[in-house]
């Protein structure tokens, strides 16, 4: 019987929707992430949990040599096709974020966008990212978040929508994790994106069992930080760090 907590189940089912999602392709957090990284033409980049490959495509368009990793084979196929269609070559490797199959000091840049809440071991991912970065290499991460007061509520809600959701972190938790791994020049940027309940659920249908259960919980006693009237407030954190020699 399939394990619905395995991200490969969820994203294998919905990979096409994520590939065509306007928010994933053009969301404001992508621009903020890349601007903060200050990427340069000719640098090498690893996009971890690449999903639909939208971050990888933008990196390639900026002249970087791009490698992508993901645990879902269908996502890797979609990403390779997307970049090849744009005239770019990409190395695609099926790999877990917590166990990256590259030698120490391989990449100038490591990115991970809208995916870390699916990881079983965020510190393990950060250790691996730190390891595969060159000296002076930079990491850039974007993910959903909530305040420490409401992060448990958000995680329960997201697990109702998507059983493969593991755990989103609060800003304080992210900062502490980055510091503990050894990153320097850490910066955090918080942003909000208002959307309808249906937009938040997508690609899960409002008529599905998971969708109905999530909406019921959402409308019971939601904190103002996350729900205002009939509007869902998606809070995102974008962060950067540097591996110093």
TrEMBL record:
Residues 46-139 form the Methyltransferase type domain. Gene3D superfamilies: Vaccinia Virus protein VP39. SUPFAM superfamilies: S-adenosyl-L-methionine-dependent methyltransferases. Keywords: Methyltransferase, Transferase. GO terms for biological process: methylation. PANTHER family: 2-METHOXY-6-POLYPRENYL-1,4-BENZOQUINOL METHYLASE, MITOCHONDRIAL, METHYLTRANSFERASE. This is Methyltransferase type 11.
């Amino acid at each position: 019987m399939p394990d619905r907590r395995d991200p490969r189940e969820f994203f294998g089912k919905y990979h096409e929707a994520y590939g065509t999602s306007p928010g994933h392709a053009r969301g404001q957090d992508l621009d903020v992430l890349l601007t903060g990284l200050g990427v340069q033409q000719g640098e090498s980049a690893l996009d971890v949990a690449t999903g639909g490959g939208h971050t990888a495509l933008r990196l390639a368009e900026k002249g970087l040599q791009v490698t992508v990793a993901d645990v879902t084979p269908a996502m890797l196929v979609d990403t390779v096709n997307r970049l090849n269609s744009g005239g770019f070559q990409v190395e695609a490797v099926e790999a877990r974020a917590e166990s990256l199959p590259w030698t120490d000091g391989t990449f100038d840049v490591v990115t991970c966008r809208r995916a870390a809440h699916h990881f079983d071991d965020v510190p393990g991912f950060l250790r691996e990212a730190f390891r595969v970065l060159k000296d002076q290499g930079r990491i850039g991460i974007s993910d959903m978040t909530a305040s420490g007061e409401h992060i448990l509520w958000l995680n329960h809600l997201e697990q109702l929508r998507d059983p493969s959701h593991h755990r989103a972190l609060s800003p304080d938790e992210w900062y502490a994790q980055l510091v503990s791994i050894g990153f320097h020049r850490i910066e955090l940027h918080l942003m909000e994106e208002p959307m309808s309940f249906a937009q938040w659920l997508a690609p899960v249908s409002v008529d599905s069992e998971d969708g109905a259960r999530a909406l019921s919980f959402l409308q019971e006693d939601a904190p103002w930080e996350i729900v205002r009237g009939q509007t869902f407030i998606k809070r995102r954190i974008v962060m950067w760090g540097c591996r110093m020699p």
